[in-house]
Structure formats: C-alpha cells, structure tokens
Design brief:
Chain B: It comes from Azospirillum griseum. The complex is a heterodimer. By secondary structure, chain A is mainly α. Chain A is built from 27 helices and no strands. Chain B is of the alpha+beta class. Chain B is built from nine helices and 22 strands. The chains are: A mainly alpha, B alpha+beta.
Chain lengths: 555, 350
C-alpha cells in the first residue's frame, strides 16, 4: 500500500470508531432524543442518573462482582495452568480442550444452563432434594452469581498463564527441585512468580470482563433484582415509559469512562508481559514436574470444576431441550420429545435467526477478517504518528461492551441519512459485530503478520515488485493459513455473540444471541433451551472444524 | 567506468548517527567487500544502496542515473533500482518453488513465459541446481538455499549485485567452498558486486577491493594486499590480521623509522603514527613476521619460550620477554631462552 492509501484506511477506521462514541457523548448532553427537532444542551440527564439510587446499586454490584470473580478465577486458573502445562497429571490431553469450552459458549446460554440445572426447579436441584430433602444452595443470590462468574472466567486466566508457562524452560523448576522444594512449593515460589506479568494481565482482563458482565446477571440476577451496570442500562430502556435516549447515553459514557483506563492498563501490562517472556528463551526441552500422590486430588479438583462449569449447565440445558417437562416423580425416559425443535421451526423469526447467525458468522466473519487484514496492512511495517493513532483507536471499541456498541451503532444508523435505510438489515449487525471485535480480530491477523520476516518482503521489493504487488504476491499468500484460522475463531465468536444484537433486533436482523435474550424475557423456556441447543451444536461444529484445520495445517 | 558511486552519504535513526559521510566508487566488474565490526554501518550502507533504508544526506548513483539525492529529495524505490540483493537469511519465499522464486523477478518484468523457463533453467544450471527447480526452499540444505538466493538475484541481469553476509549461515567447510565458487561465478559473469562481511579472511579471499568501515566512516579502502601490508591505523592493522602489540615510548626517529624499546632491547620500526620522541606509541607486528634466529643481532630480542601449541601444519610458540608475551609460528623448539628477530620494515609503530 502506498502512503495515501494507508492514511485513507486509517482515517476511515477513525471515523468508524469515533462516530458511535461521539454520537453517544453528544446525546448524553441533550434533553431528548437526538433526532427530535427541538433539543437543547443540558446536564439534566447526568443529574438524573447520578441521583438514581439504582445506578449506584448497579455500580456497587458491578464492582463487587468484578472483584469477587477475579479473586476466584485468578488462583484457580493459575493453578490449573501449572497442573496442565508443567506436571505429569494423568489425562492432560483429554482435559485441556474441555477447559476452554466456557469461553466458546455464550454466557447467556451458560446462564440458562445453570437455571435449568441448579435453579430452584432445576434437574440437579431436584435430584439433590430427593436425597437430602432440601436444596443447600440458592442460585439467585449474589454470592452464587460471583462464584459462577468466577468459575466461568477461569479459562481466560488459564489461557494467558499457560502460554507464559509454556515458554518457560524447565531447568528453573528442576533447579528448585534439586535444592529440595516440593511440587507445590515449586509452583508457588518459582513457576508462577516467573509468569507473574501474564497472571497480572489476566487478572486485569477478568476484572474488566466483570464490569462488562451482561448475560449472567441478566439471567441469574433478575429474580432477586440484582442489577449491574449493563443490566441497568438494559432495564433503563423502558424506565420512563418512553425510550430515554439521553439517560442511556449517560450510562454508556460512564461505562466507557470506567472501562477505558482498564483497557489502557491491559495494553500496558501486555507489553511488559511480552518483554518479560522474551528474556528467558530457553524453552527447548520441557520436562514435566512429577507430582506423585498429589495428582489424584489435583485431578479430582479439575473434574469438580469441569463438572460445575461445563458438564452440569450444558448437559442440563440440552436435556431440557429434549423433554417436555420434569419434576418430582417424572420418569425422564417417558417425556423425551423433539416437540420443542418442531415448534422452533414454526416461528419464522427464529428460523431467520438461525440462518442469519450462520450468515453473519461465515460470510460476515470472512468480511470482518478482510477488514481487519486491510487495517493491519495499512499499518504494516510503517512507523509513524498515524500507526500510533491507530493503536489507540483500536482500544476505544474494546472499552464498549457489546450491548453498548450495539446501541451506539443503532444510533449511528438512525442519525446518518444515507445509512438509515440499512438500519434494519444485517449490514447494521455486521458493522456492530466488526467494531465490537475489532481489537480481538486485529490481534489475530497481526499475529499472523508477525510470523513473516521483513526480509521476505524486502526481497520482493528488490527484485522489482511494487509495494502493492508485494502485499498481493508475497504477504497475503504467506499469511493465508493464519487468516483461515483467524476466520474460524471469528466464526465461533460471532456465533456466540448475544449482547451486540440486542438493540439492533428487528424483523430481518434476528440473530440467535439477541433472540435468546428477548425470548428469555418472555419466559418461553422450551424455545430458549431448544434454540440454545442449536447454538451449542453450531459452535461445536465450528470447534470441530477448527481442530481438523489445526491438525491439517500442522501435519 | 564507475558503475556505482556513493558521495558523502549520511544516515541516522533519531540522534543515532549510523553513517557519517561515506564516499566510494565501485568500478564495472569489480568485487568490493564492505568490512567492519557489527555496528560499523556496513549493512546499513548496503541497505541504503538497495533502497531499503533512507539516508538523510548525500547521493547514490548507479551507472549514470542518480537513485538517491538527499539535496534534491530524490529517493528511487527499491523496485525501480533494478539491483540484485542476496539476504543474509536468504529470504526465500516459502510458498513458492525454487523455480518460482527465481522466476518472480522476470514475471514482474513481463518476460514471455517461454523465455522465463529458459532463463531460469540457465541461471539454476549456473549455480549448480539445474535439477531442483520443483523443490520448495524448506526441502533444501542451507548451501543449496544460498545458491537459490544468488540465482534469484542474478536472473534479471542487475547492473550491481549486493550480498549481505552471504556466507555467514554456512558451516566452516561449506564456507570455504562457497568462497571459491561465488568469486569465480561473479568473475565469469563479469558482474559488479558489493558484499558485506565481518570476516577479514573472507573479504580478502573474495574481494578485489576492501572498504574497511568503523563507526560509520571509511577507515581505509584498497586492495586486500594494501590493507594487510600497509594498514593506515592501529585499528586497521588489528582488524586485518593477528598481531603482537608492544606498548612503549618513542626513543628516537630517523629516516621514516621510529625507535621503541622493549625490556631494554631497542627496536626500530616503520613510523606510521607520526608520534614524536617521548610520546607513548604502540609497535605492531604480524605473528608470522616474528622469526626465531640463531643469535643476537640488529632488532633482535631475547625471550623465554613459555609454551608451544601444536596446530597440525605448524606450531604456535608463546614467548615471554619482560612482562610482554609474544607469539609466532614455526617448527618445534626446545624449551629455554631464544632470540627473536622483528624485521624493521614489518614492525609498524603507531
């Protein structure tokens, strides 16, 4: 790409990123919806929200939940990573792929799973009740919400810690064993401190995700009226009877104000973490630490965690989708049915939702990867103020939770004359999805680009290829495999996305995620579980495709 | 005729000055080595010629056409300079076959495909890989990859071919063979070649002329013989060979010769540093120029044999004279005291 094209691409991206945020900030200072002819600048919306007790309740709940889930997820994830990566734990090869499942299943779906399994009338609850005569937990309490949020975010910590541990030479551990440290001591005093930057990064990430939490509190917090920032925003839509755009805008601004420093901190930590890792390169021969007897309690611990966060909710949910009802004294084998799925097919909007989800994930995902690739190429091997600007711009959408970004994009389509005809089409959904996952997708593609040495492209220039031809003939073919696997990851990500489409939901723009949120509000449990099962099956296919592709491109 | 001319070239990254005014000319058919330590600016100079770095000042001219002119704001992009460059890592494109790697430069020049087939085959034949066109780079050994990289740079007949540490990724044995065949190939094709190296033996073996760089400046330029036998500075003499160094003080000066002193023995050497009587000076003599002689004489010192190392083809002897140790080569020697002759015309005083 030449300089002019690069700058044009970066400016286009700046507009796409700044327009939604700018519109939200503008709206927050108005006294009515921005599209109404007579609106005036005022701070009244801020006054209203900052006077609202519910807002501070939600803020407080968000903070407590974010702290609580970080306190649970970080130690569990770090220990799990040590056990999986550095020890001779039996069955590691089977456990490892399952650990990441909570990351790939959308959190509303997981939340439904917890309700049908562990809720007051859940299948596991009923089973426990038949033994003990009572249910020793209450799913809809704040504590339960924190525990579930914490345990379902263990994979994030696991992912970052294990990648750090994998690049650590086993000589440092062997040295500790030789001086007389037991396996637990080795983990706590040598291995984990050495990957501290990675753990710290994961902790900030989980804390940040805690503030963004939407699906879990929407489903699990609702019965007891536990609001967090995102659900407060969601409920605010109808708080005053009419859509109170200015109030929503104020909440969005406050969410962005909290999220932005956290995102900046993450970026800073990621940089230091990378520096740290590269110092201790000698990772050639890794020998697992023998933990002897301790492996049995360790395996038991992991199995318990997996059972609670993966097996119980997902199997409960799938089972519920195939039975007409359950309760005390009901024989499951007699109530098995496919009726819910047949019913599903009778709702044209639900069928459209499934088709749309497939389209947005496959075609839309591919287009998004294309956008991310063009953006990456615009900054590729170019040091300038423009690329630094781009680095910071990418962070902004990261600070908008899906719900917020969906709302902002909805407004942009409402506000801009030439875009408004497309508001109720999948184009709006695609723009929102691409923007929400901008930072993630950019990182996937830049990871692929980093794999190719600069001299491969320089060689192309020297033999006579222009910059454009180098991109076309050399760079793109070289990152082809990386682009395909990026697309598969984006495919799964778009498949499970639920919050971004919520405000964009209209006839024609249904996707499974937003349909689930709205169906849950109407209490149609049969349809919700059936649709969730369809969603899980689709994600399962995506994961299968990914592992097949991974095998092929490595073999 | 000058094929490549560089005049007063400067380059800096921020406040870090890499090239501080380099001027050099490269004649048609000449092989020139850019020699220097790491950080001397030799690779940066090569990359500036290729158009991969942008100097801040100066000019670069290929044939009669300027490709860089700092004052006029001219900087022809790499692809328009038409040069050939062999990368240190070879930089072969892993997704293309050997044939396609070599053919790419011709395809960009819209050469008809029949001619491409014939020319690529010819150049691959020339580097001894005629039968391996269908292979992918990862299926080849390091030495073969290097030949492909060279073929890729040669196929479109560039006016000048640039090589960045072409031999550094080969093992010792292969490197010695490659020195011979690269030089004979370039000579046979009558090409102008510039190559970067940090190995003075490699530079002397391959090049017609050596440009010695240090700290972004040219220290000395000339034939390998000139650089080896008439170094202009202590740095140049140290870089080009292995020496004995005698730290001393100038005692006397006469007719282009300077007298220094080593543990009471007076030594005459060529005056190269222009130091005045009474100033500190360093005497330098190549190991192989120190000779063991039968007895006392002019420019001789007495030294005790400390140890001898057997090197196969010869012995390396380490002598001690006062607090200085001197090394030389020769046949087997008995332990004890010996006389060493340091010829005045081979002892350089800086």
């Amino acid at each position: 790409m030449n300089r002019a094209t690069r700058i044009a691409v970066i400016v286009a991206m700046a507009i796409a990123v700044l327009a939604p945020i700018g519109l939200v900030v503008y709206q927050s200072f108005l006294d009515g919806p921005f599209f109404q002819p007579k609106t005036a600048f005022t701070l009244s919306a801020y006054d209203f929200v900052l006077d609202d007790e519910d807002f501070f309740d939600a803020l407080w709940n968000s903070a407590v939940i974010a702290f609580g889930m970080t306190a649970i997820a970080v130690p569990v994830g770090a220990i799990l990573a040590f056990l999986m990566v550095r020890t001779d734990l039996p069955g590691r090869r089977w456990i490892e792929p399952v650990i990441l499942v909570p990351m790939f299943v959308s959190s509303v779906v997981l939340a439904f799973g917890f309700v049908v399994s562990l809720g007051p009338a859940g299948i596991v609850s009923l089973w426990v009740k038949s033994w003990l005569g009572t249910i020793p937990w209450y799913l809809y309490s704040k504590w339960m919400l924190i525990v579930i949020a914490g345990l379902t975010h263990v994979p994030h910590v696991f992912l970052y810690t294990s990648s750090g541990l994998r690049s650590l030479g086993s000589d440092v551990e062997e040295a500790a064993r030789m001086t007389g440290a037991g396996p637990l001591r080795v983990a706590l005093t040598v291995s984990l401190p050495m990957v501290m930057p990675n753990i710290l990064y994961a902790a900030v990430l989980v804390f940040f995700l805690g503030f963004e939490l939407f699906g879990l509190p929407l489903v699990l917090g609702d019965p007891e009226g536990i609001l967090v920032l995102a659900t407060y925003l969601y409920k605010l839509t109808n708080k005053l009877g009419t859509p109170s755009y200015q109030l929503m805008a104020v909440v969005v601004v406050s969410i962005i104000c909290i999220a932005l420093p956290l995102v900046a901190l993450q970026r800073h930590l990621l940089r230091t973490a990378n520096r740290y890792v590269s110092v201790k390169g000698k990772a050639s021969a890794q020998k697992p630490v023998t933990i002897g007897f301790w492996r049995w309690p360790a395996v038991a611990l992991i199995v318990c965690w997996l059972a609670f966060t993966v097996v119980v909710p997902i199997s409960g949910l799938i089972l519920r989708a195939f039975v007409s009802s359950w309760g005390e004294g009901v024989q499951l084998s007699q109530v098995l049915t496919l009726d819910h799925f047949r019913e599903l097919m009778h709702f044209p909007n639900l069928v459209r939702g499934i088709v749309n989800t497939l389209l947005i994930a496959s075609v839309g995902g591919a287009l998004s990867v294309g956008v991310y690739t063009v953006l990456n190429l615009a900054a590729h091997r170019w040091q300038s103020g423009w690329t630094r600007l781009m680095d910071y711009l990418v962070l902004l959408p990261r600070a908008m939770p899906g719900l917020v970004a969906g709302l902002a994009i909805f407004w942009v389509f409402l506000f801009t004359p030439f875009l408004s005809p497309m508001r109720q089409t999948m184009i709006a959904i695609w723009v929102a999805y691409t923007l929400v996952w901008l930072a993630y997708g950019m990182r996937l593609v830049s990871g692929a680009l980093l794999q190719i040495g600069p001299e491969l492209e320089e060689a192309g220039r020297v033999v006579g290829a222009s910059a454009g031809r180098v991109s076309r003939d050399l760079t793109l073919p070289l990152i082809k495999v990386g682009l395909i696997s990026s697309w598969l990851l984006i495919f799964i990500t778009f498949m499970r996305e639920y919050s971004t489409g919520v405000y964009l939901l209209s006839p024609g723009t249904e996707v499974i995620g937003s349909l689930l949120v709205s169906l849950w509000g109407s209490g149609a449990v049969d349809l919700v579980t059936a649709l969730s099962t369809v969603n899980i099956a689709m994600i399962g296919c995506g994961l299968l495709l990914m592992s097949l592709f991974g095998k092929r491109s490595h073999g | 005729m000058a094929k490549l001319t560089i005049d007063d070239l400067h380059l800096s990254y921020g406040s870090n000055h890499i090239l501080k005014g380099i001027s050099a000319t490269f004649a048609q058919g000449e092989i020139v080595a850019l020699l220097g330590r790491s950080g001397s600016g030799k690779t940066t100079l090569l990359r500036s010629i290729a158009g991969l770095e942008e100097p801040s000042k100066g000019t670069i001219t290929i044939g009669n056409s300027p490709v860089f002119d700092g004052a006029a704001g001219l900087n022809v992009p790499s692809e328009k300079r038409g040069l050939g460059l062999v990368f240190q890592s070879y930089a072969l494109w892993p997704h293309k076959t050997v044939f396609e790697n070599v053919a790419y430069g011709l395809r960009l020049r819209n050469v008809p495909s029949a001619e491409i087939t014939q020319r690529v085959a010819a150049v691959l034949e020339g580097v001894g890989l005629g039968h391996l066109g269908d292979r992918y780079p990862h299926q080849m050994s390091g030495g073969q990859q290097q030949r492909v990289a060279l073929a890729r740079a040669l196929v479109y007949n560039p006016p000048v071919i640039l090589l960045d540490e072409p031999l550094s990724n080969l093992d010792a044995k292969l490197r010695e063979e490659a020195r011979i065949w690269i030089r004979s190939l370039i000579k046979k094709m009558n090409l102008t070649a510039v190559f970067v190296t940090h190995d003075q033996v490699e530079a002397m073996a391959i090049a017609d002329r050596i440009v010695l760089l240090d700290g972004g400046r040219i220290v000395q330029a000339g034939t390998p013989q000139q650089l080896y036998t008439e170094p202009v500075s202590l740095f140049a003499s140290e870089f080009m060979g292995t020496n004995n160094q005698i730290k001393s003080r100038v005692q006397d000066k006469r007719g282009g010769y300077t007298q220094i002193e080593l543990s009471g023995f007076a030594l005459w050497g060529k005056d190269r540093g222009g130091k005045a009587v009474g100033e500190d000076a360093t005497g330098v003599i190549r190991l192989e120029q120190v000779a063991v002689v039968a007895g006392e004489g002019e420019n001789c010192i007495q030294a005790t044999l400390e140890t001898s190392l057997y090197l196969g083809s010869q012995w390396e002897h380490v002598f001690r004279c006062g607090d200085l140790s001197l090394r030389t080569f020769g046949g087997p020697l008995a332990a004890g005291s010996h006389w060493l002759h340091l010829p005045p015309e081979q002892l350089w005083v800086f």
